[in-house]
Amino acid sequence: MIIGAMNSPKNSLVEEIQLFGEMGFDFVEVTIEHPSATPEKIMANKKTIMDAFHSYNFGVLTHYPWYFSVAHPYSRIQDAIVQEFAKAFDAASELGAKKATIHTEFLPSGIQDRPIHVAKTIETVKRLSKEASERGLQLLIENFNQGSFSIKEFKTLFSELDIGMTLDIGHASTSEGEGMNNYLAQFKKRISHVHLHDNDRRSDQHLPLGAGKIDMPKAVSELKSFYDGTITLEIHSSDREYLKIGKDKLEILWYGREHHERNKNYQQPKK
Ligand SMILES: [Zn+2]
Q1: Which residues surround ligand 1, an ion (CB under 5 A)?
Q2: pTM of the predicted structure, to 2 decimals
């Protein structure tokens, strides 16, 4: 298991990489997103960004704006969004990323009939999967909430398209989510990446681990029973110290406190 952090797109990407590097994270999940991490800005700054990644020996995963529609009712708007995704995939591939996480639709489901919502999602995700694989990226789809796409609808999607999934444990645990266990019961084998954050089990709050009501020891132990891959802490607190605390908490839950303390012996001494 390796632990990553996601840049806030409001901040300089290079400064975010340095912050996560000093905190000892294993990888960065770069959200390629307005305003400071657009594909254009990433391309223009590529050398400095790559130098920062190399200086911390960071792996790179990528993530895309949750507000990019994948089932937009207007086809020309959907086409333009697919083009924006493709531009972001170009930037991701320049950074050496291999995985790309997108979300299901965010527009209220009443805008179009549900079968159309599902069919349009499948059509767009097929297009995006092709665009991604042409750039050496594996497309992963993230659970958002039940209004966005249900477990049943994910099953329909996966019956038509063989792609992986990013399990967002926080999203699955909101009142609109359908619960982590129900996702695990259906999609264990598809889970290629995980997002972890806490909430009050009602709304999507991206709280530090332990600050909400998700039973973290239980969630981590269930995850550990079948998974040993990348986990991004998607904690959105303005005080970034909570990221480092979250990393320690996850390591203690995963390895036990003693092993966690012992691992510190292998960390770079502070300058
Ligand atoms: Zn997420």
Answers
A1: 168, 195, 234
A2: 0.95
